[in-house]
Amino acid sequence: MQQNKSDVWVGLFVLIGAAALVFLALQSANLLSLNFQKTYTVTARFDNIGGLKPKAAVKSAGVVVGRVESITFDDQTFQANVAMNMESRYLFPKDSSLKILTSGLLGDQYIGIEAGASEENLKAGDRVTATQSAVVLENLIGQFLYGKAEQGSGGNAAGAGAGGKE
């Protein structure tokens, strides 16, 4: 009988440990967010969202103030519509601006919100119009390489012209 009791307790602790590992894995991957705060939904349009995903954080001053609810594509404007659930305890002015930022050099993307100066606050259903799209690393590298190639070919022509005058 003592052996059966020990087996039950060991089995129980193994199950609790496994459940804790699953919970931590889902939390760290932003696949599970347990938030019991009241929220309000605001939307914004971006030209390019990069690698932004649903459930990504919405941060202000480094503090998570909401989460991305959904991302859809508008085939009329060819922009991405992003719906965000903002915690109702955080109020932002209507003229606030949104940027898609990256945590770290190659980390996850999130939305950064900078508060504006308007007297009126955002409320459920509002659309934020001041947005800045994600910086795409491939585009930056391409611009850098194209600029260097252009500068290199222009520099040689200028050097040859200057050398010919002497």
TrEMBL record:
InterPro entries: ABC_MlaD, Mce/MlaD, MlaD_Phospholipid_Transporter. It comes from the Bacteria. Residues 38-116 form the Mce/MlaD domain. Pfam families: MlaD. Coiled coil: none annotated. NCBIfam families: OM_asym_MlaD (TIGR04430). PANTHER family: INTERMEMBRANE PHOSPHOLIPID TRANSPORT SYSTEM BINDING PROTEIN MLAD, INTERMEMBRANE PHOSPHOLIPID TRANSPORT SYSTEM BINDING PROTEIN MLAD-RELATED. This is Outer membrane lipid asymmetry maintenance protein MlaD. It comes from Comamonas terrae.
